[in-house]
């Protein structure tokens, strides 16, 4: 059905302008009942979209500022891979104080999602100590030496409490800040993992001591190397993971 599905949100629903949404989705600003919103069309399964929608509704009910899915005229939260979400106003973090606010928001996310079920098809970093694949990650496509380095970084996270992680909070375009609130957007990489993957932030905004910061930074670099392999960014991130 593609973008024709937008009509499920009303006869007057319309696309306005294409937005940056990464390689996995086609993202547009849209107008629904005269209100600005954001629509994302991708190839995610219904089970995956149900997980994401349920998570965002939970976070919204718990007081976080997130892009809650807007239901269709008949109450569905997605149709044939199309999701329409609330528009989030604001700008990216710029200062050390801004990033500290981001760290506080991420910790709120982590606290609210203890024991949350894993996103369908995904695996955590510590699952990948023994598994080779999970959604966008395929360790068999990486050189053996690179896999060993990534696993050595993730092994330092073993035994820690899991929760939902946003998955890509260091990208400033995934954050919308106002004076009153911080919104995390683009939940495509969210999954259940250890919170350290979210907290290797600029300025060490999470306030880690040296040892904890090293663990978080190495694990995060290894994750980005694996999930993006093999684009230029993944190669750069792998270079940050220490040899063993």
TrEMBL record:
Cross-referenced SUPFAM superfamilies: Protein kinase-like (PK-like) (SSF56112)
Domain of life: Bacteria
InterPro entries assigned to the protein according to its UniProt record, in alphabetical order: Aminoglycoside_PTrfase (IPR002575), Kinase-like_dom_sf (IPR011009)
All residue ranges annotated as the Aminoglycoside phosphotransferase domain in the record: 16-218
Stored Gene3D superfamilies: 3.90.1200.10, Phosphorylase Kinase, domain 1
One Pfam family per UniProt: APH
The protein's name: Phosphotransferase
């Amino acid at each position: 059905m593609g973008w024709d599905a937008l009509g499920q949100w009303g006869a007057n629903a319309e696309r306005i302008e294409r937005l940056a949404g990464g390689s996995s989705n086609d993202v547009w600003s849209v107008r629904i009942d005269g209100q600005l919103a954001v629509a994302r069309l991708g190839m995610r399964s219904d089970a995956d979209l149900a997980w994401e929608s349920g998570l965002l509704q939970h976070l919204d009910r718990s007081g976080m500022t997130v892009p809650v899915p807007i239901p269709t005229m008949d109450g569905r939260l997605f149709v044939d891979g199309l999701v329409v979400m609330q528009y989030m106003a604001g700008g990216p973090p710029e200062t050390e104080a801004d990033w500290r606010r981001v760290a506080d928001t991420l910790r709120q996310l982590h606290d609210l999602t203890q024991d949350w079920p894993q996103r369908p098809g995904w695996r955590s970093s510590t699952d990948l100590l023994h598994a080779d694949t999970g959604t966008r990650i395929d360790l068999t496509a990486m050189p053996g030496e690179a896999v060993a380095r990534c696993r050595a970084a993730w092994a330092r996270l073993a035994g820690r409490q899991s929760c939902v992680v946003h998955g890509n909070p260091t990208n400033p375009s995934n954050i919308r800040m106002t004076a009153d609130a911080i919104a995390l957007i683009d939940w495509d990489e969210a999954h259940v993992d250890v919170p350290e993957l979210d907290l290797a932030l600029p300025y060490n905004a999470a306030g880690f001591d040296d040892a904890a910061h090293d663990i978080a930074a190495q694990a995060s670099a290894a994750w980005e190397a694996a999930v993006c392999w093999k684009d230029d960014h993944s190669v750069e991130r792998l270079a940050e993971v220490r040899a063993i």
